[in-house]
Amino acid sequence: MKEWSRKVYLELPRPCEEDHRSMQKRLLAALRDCGSFCAGNEPKSELVRDETDIRIRPEVLNSCLEVCEQADWQVTASLGFDGRIWEMLDLEPGDTTAQHYGLCADLGSTTIVMELINLNTGETLASESVFNPQIAYGDDILTRIFYTKDHPERRRELQEATAKGFRKLMERLSEKTGVDTGKCNILTVAGNTTMIHFLLGLDAFGVFQSPYAVQTLEPEVCRGAELGIPIQGFVYICPAMENYLGGDIISGMLATGLPDREEISVFLDVGTNGELVVGNREFLLAGAGAAGPALEGGSVRTGMRAENGAVDRVTTEHGQLKAHVIGGTEAKGICGSGIVDLLAELYLNGWIDLRGRFQVTETEIEESAGGGEKGQSRIPGLTKQLLRDAASEKDTEYAIEYAPGLYFYQSDIDEFIRTKAAAMTMVEYMMNLIGLTMEDVGCFYVAGAFGTHIDKESAVTIGMYPDMDRDKIISPGNTSLKGAKKLLLDRSLKEKAETIIERMQYVQFGAVEEFIELMRAAQAIPHTDLQRFPSVSARLEQRRKSDPKTDPKTDPKT
Amino acid sequence: MKEWSRKVYLELPRPCEEDHRSMQKRLLAALRDCGSFCAGNEPKSELVRDETDIRIRPEVLNSCLEVCEQADWQVTASLGFDGRIWEMLDLEPGDTTAQHYGLCADLGSTTIVMELINLNTGETLASESVFNPQIAYGDDILTRIFYTKDHPERRRELQEATAKGFRKLMERLSEKTGVDTGKCNILTVAGNTTMIHFLLGLDAFGVFQSPYAVQTLEPEVCRGAELGIPIQGFVYICPAMENYLGGDIISGMLATGLPDREEISVFLDVGTNGELVVGNREFLLAGAGAAGPALEGGSVRTGMRAENGAVDRVTTEHGQLKAHVIGGTEAKGICGSGIVDLLAELYLNGWIDLRGRFQVTETEIEESAGGGEKGQSRIPGLTKQLLRDAASEKDTEYAIEYAPGLYFYQSDIDEFIRTKAAAMTMVEYMMNLIGLTMEDVGCFYVAGAFGTHIDKESAVTIGMYPDMDRDKIISPGNTSLKGAKKLLLDRSLKEKAETIIERMQYVQFGAVEEFIELMRAAQAIPHTDLQRFPSVSARLEQRRKSDPKTDPKTDPKT
Lengths: 558, 558
Hints:
The first copy, chain A, is an alpha/beta fold. Helices cover 34% and strands 23% of the residues of chain A.
């Protein structure tokens, strides 16, 4: 275990006739004498040189004499590692080694989360999140990238917006804890490749444009000041493997420990994109695909983030859908976990078939087609709704009212099924590549807020998760942040991250014929091959028994 | 020979499906492939690691894509060495390796001199000098130091004043040559310890105050930007040995090569202070003392810098002093070389004795005491002059009119003799220490403007230089600047400078009894022991023959 940050209490010898070394020499000698830096006086190897080579810039040296005189030459030095050597970043009067803090952050395209960590204990003192101020330049990443394209000066705007987010988080953490976050010697950041490019003020067009050559995957350790982040020390950014396989995923590897274990695990991160890693200590396969924002409610008409007013749980009670709303307020829309529940319920109630089509009879269609009002369908809440921006009244679609005045459309369902199929096909394709099935998998990680909030049973029911031992399905939460925290506490994980990247093999999805075929088969609820989901069959059976009317095997159209 | 700065022409492979490395990786791979960086692919030793470890900061990476696309991927990278590793500082379109420049400077307390060097050829393209803008805060160093004492914020003023001087020099060099000096990857600076402290914004009080613990003697390599010096690269400051033995002297060692030679040499730098090094490749003794500004005309009533209007040469023609004025204008004062000539002439003419006293008879005193007007002295131009700020008319002194209306006072002579004695006693004391005489000395270097302008014969006559083979008395000019240039061209001299500092032994002058005794003996023209100056005896003899009236051995007072 190696640190990024050190605080060292020093009782400096006062200058006198016999010892009139310069302040710089006096400090360096005292720092090198400290146990933590000592590995023999003579630097013997490269490593030892790194440990004993300490820089003190004039700017910092400037105040040292005053601090020493004020504090009777009993002072505490703050040191940060710049990626190659140590630098003394601050000198404080007295012994302040007990106040030793660092920051870690997950830089997401929607949200930036930051934690203040006690570096002496590893304890998280506080956590804060803000919406990424980049959103002002576009809700989705591509809009932001296009905003900067051919306008190099706009990269600065994106950079400054990102820095603003970090500053806000630092302020809030300071307010919450009373800790001066500006005194941190280190901030570790994990984020996807585009986010990191924006943080560094770089052109991110290469992330999306063939031949996908980006500006950097392993950026240099920067000074906070260089990036407009007011910490006195350095910013370490978790390296990325590929344009679509960012530092957030590598950080997730560190968080879960997947690359070190004997058992094979699957790591799936579903956000703006879907990223997948399958492997163990022997091999690591990784891939990314357009798992898309649909899963988080992004491209669904009434989709919204999991915040107050969002339907996050849907159940069926007495043959009627029942929505749970975050914050207990009036429902304003539906978030990812709500959608998964809704689809599971629709399917289990026999209201949609395995293709996701609403199960209405011709008569019902005729009757409800009349005026867009609540029809006579046997499915409570199903109506035909005019599409927004419809050219004529013919542009209607079946939609289910999941909460008062809120409709989930047929095309919303279709979109969601396509997306979940894409995500699941990545997993399946990769398992096929290595000749294994889900039964060989030790852990199935579903990272991110999505995995945290979703109901496992519902997710299995709609075929978003494989039908496996539920204990093996793990929602590790924000693994990007958790990995960043691990990196913060142990600098040697920097090399580990680099090794993971070297070991990883990138698997290209999409254009392969097999992939397309697998994907087509997966575009069903839960899957065209129901035998792969025995527990779903059992639930269906159970639901049918309790309410014999709803039998998805009865397809009224055929 | 190692460089501080490199320009490398690269023909980069374009990104394509098969090669979509990041810009950073692409550049680094190309740079490492270059012969100059290549020492095997694997970094085997620390040294090699330094050579192959190259940093590219996001700020620089930012413009690379545009430059590459504009230049058909044929570009020139500029690299600077930060003291530990290389950093890519700029990328230019096309092949610009022919334009490769660096800067070196001597940061003097009165004058800053800077040269623009073609790093491909080592040629000096232009040289410029400005008065050090610090002068606004005090003519002498101590005033400036006291200005900042107890006012830490004033250090910033001194720092900014110094940076302003550097910026002015860069602008002038750019104007003169058409070279964009901002594109320099390196500037080397040599200066005394106080000057370096001011350049870095540091408290310099320790230079003069017991126990003489300064802030730094070996400052870190800085970015130009950190110091307000607008070069894209780094500033390397020649390290110092002691508070009074600054980087200017170490730089002088590199310039003269004294520490490498078999023969023993003496290096004397006379400026605000007097610094001395005696040694060869076996040993190096160094010391510093209050040789003082008197030698440069500083504490002489009509003393001035060697500029237009200054008397810089004095001869005797037809029994009368004759002054040469720089610029051929009316005389405004006298500079160091003029003073040395004047004293030599006064002595050779028998107008002052070996103690420097004007040779006037009692009668002459009585007569001239009357009204401060030109007296009846046998010494042309000698009068009694009222002292400035005199309390009464009794405060008069003998003074010689060396140019119309300009007087050199008895107390000016006394001051000058004390100062030259101090300088020469340092040399003598050190030679005694090692048990050698000037006959064992290969070269006697007198560095600085003082040594350059002074007439060797006059200097020997007044005992300022030892009476030795004139060819061995060398005026190497501004060795601080010359050493800085050497450092600029060869980075390995950084280690050499550090070795010189390690080898050097500092000799304390002043309080030692022997030193005081030697100094007393040296307070004469040329010396109380005239036998040590046989050539001066010969000149006296010759002068007496040509004008029998002037015989210094005839002391009218005795």
